[in-house]
Design a protein that fits this description.
Blueprint: H1 2-11, E1 15-18, H2 26-29, E2 35-39, E3 51-53, E4 68-74, H3 83-92, E5 94-105, H4 110-119, H5 145-154, E6 158-162, H6 173-192, H7 196-205, H8 208-212, E7 215-221
Parallel strand pairs: 1-2, 1-4, 2-3, 4-5
Antiparallel strand pairs: 5-7, 6-7
């Protein structure tokens, strides 16, 4: 995903952890000098990675793991049943002023809410009864920007921001109609915010990407005392 590479390009981290590393696409997009390690339970080591571990991420990152200037989690957190533990262990392995980048499907678009209203399931998060199989890449944990913000704050992260993705927003006229009240509400909360942090939160929550986008790309930083 180009937006992930752009975020890392600005930071120029020397060491990166890609978790889960999947097909190993990340290292091909990065043009600056870096060392990158990968973790994945169901995929093997890919070309360009310095080190690689096969680990069940439901238990978080291994304690013996090194610290990194950046951690990237693309299309992974929606597969985990214990995301708070996962995020807390990531924080433990990020250097001071380091960055975490997460991408995950967004359940806030109006069409997603309409499907949930009519069927009880969000797009991409179907009923899994009778199909629950470890390693089948099931989506089990749906996310919106406010929900991801909450979990990141609980894990101790700061500077949480939502990034724009190059996609059509909204995709359909009816989405604009149903999304407008939510945008209006978030914008009003931003105007009423009593701190810069809250203002940025409501600004991101009410953005086109948050209300209409199909994908969340969120970054957060670590400041250790």
């Amino acid at each position: 995903m180009p937006i992930v590479a752009m975020i890392l390009e600005k930071k120029q981290p020397k060491t990166i952890l890609d978790v889960p590393s999947g097909s190993g696409w990340l290292t091909d997009l990065l043009k600056f000098h870096h060392e990158i390690d990968g973790i994945d339970l169901f995929e093997g080591r890919k070309k360009g990675y310095r080190d690689f571990l096969q680990v069940d991420l439901e238990n978080g990152l291994p304690r013996e793991l090194s610290n990194y200037d950046a951690v990237v989690c693309c299309e992974g957190i929606e597969h985990l049943g214990n995301p708070l533990l996962f995020l807390k262990t990531i924080k433990d392995h990020i250097n001071n002023e380091g960055v975490l980048v997460i991408t995950t499907p967004n359940i806030w678009p109006p069409s997603s809410k309409i499907k949930f209203l009519t069927r009880g399931f969000f797009p991409g998060f179907p009923n899994l009864a009778g199909k629950i199989e470890r390693g089948s890449h099931m989506h089990i944990m749906p996310w919106s920007f406010p929900w991801l913000y909450l979990y990141l704050k609980l894990a101790g992260f700061e500077g949480i921001r939502l990034h724009e993705v190059d996609e059509k927003k909204p995709r359909h006229v009816i989405e604009k109609i149903f999304g407008w009240p939510q945008t209006f509400y978030c914008n009003r909360k931003a105007r009423q915010a009593v701190s810069d942090e809250l203002k940025l939160y409501w600004k991101d929550a009410g953005s086109l990407q948050s209300v209409y986008g199909r994908l969340l790309v969120v970054s957060a930083t670590v400041r250790k005392k």
